[in-house]
Specification:
The protein is an all-alpha fold. The chain is built from ten helices and no strands. It has one domain.
């Protein structure tokens, strides 16, 4: 039986993460992984990533259902991405088993600098502008599908995120997809990659179900609250605030990793 002293803080933090993530257009993994690691709920970065991705899976499922109802998912592009994205998960699994967790902590902290910079500028991946017209055929398109898919799948396994932070702007800038289609495809591809990543983490013993449950419940509730009252909040200032939070988390994770070397 999980202790109340652990369940309640994670549940409340997840409500806040779900609330703000729904406003910022994020899956929540960039916040959950640092929360678990810096909060002392887990000992290593792979455990934080493995537990976080279980909650991200439910974010992907819930959001994909919503986009499906709006007929916004480009299933052709989504299914083309899936093989390489799934391959990226297994590449990430190999990396996790090969590299010292301390270096993964530092790598994730460096990765956080990108979304932190975007937020400090008052922007998110939803603000990017891409090409005029889609690039959805040709050799270059298929090569890009493979590269982006592997990158997204690897990031999912290594960092416990959905991959949308990098995946969405890549689809918009490099393929010329409109932002709604890019977000919908990213979330759709997230379902199998997050599910496989969570399953492999469970087998490896890095997914702590007792920690994932309050995160999942909180994320679901917070994501429902966010859109209802988000119109009253100045989003640019909110993004900048969370950019500062991510920078603080990144700095602490880098220090944590360096101290363990």
């Amino acid at each position: 039986m999980m202790e109340v002293a652990t369940f309640v803080p994670l549940f409340l933090a997840a409500i806040a993460i779900g609330f703000f993530a729904s406003l910022l257009g994020l899956g929540g993994g960039v916040f959950m992984t640092p929360l678990l690691l810096l909060g002392g709920f887990v000992a290593t970065q792979p455990e934080a990533a493995g537990t976080s991705i279980a909650a991200v899976l439910f974010t992907g499922i819930s959001a994909s259902i919503s986009y499906f109802r709006r007929r916004a998912i480009d299933f052709r592009i989504g299914f083309l991405f899936m093989p390489s994205a799934i391959g990226g998960v297994f590449l990430g699994r190999y990396i996790v088993q090969t590299i010292d967790p301390k270096w993964l902590t530092i790598a994730f902290a460096v990765f956080l600098l990108y979304p932190a910079a975007m937020m400090l500028l008052g922007r998110t991946s939803k603000d990017v502008k891409g090409l005029e017209g889609e690039r959805t055929s040709g050799l270059g398109f298929y090569l890009l599908i493979i590269v982006l898919g592997f990158a997204a799948g690897t990031a999912t396994k290594l960092f416990g995120i959905g991959g949308g932070t990098v995946f969405v702007p890549s689809l918009v800038i490099l393929l010329g997809l409109d932002i709604v289609s890019a977000v919908a495809v990213s979330l759709f591809v997230m379902i199998p990659t997050a599910a496989i990543s969570a399953a492999t983490s469970w087998v490896e013993g890095t997914l702590h179900l007792e920690l994932a449950v309050p995160l999942i419940l909180g994320i679901i509730i917070g994501a429902q609250i966010g859109p209802r009252i988000g119109s009253r909040i100045p989003k640019k200032r909110l993004r900048q605030l969370f950019g500062i939070v991510l920078l603080y988390a990144a700095a602490n994770m880098i220090l944590k990793g360096i101290q363990g070397i």
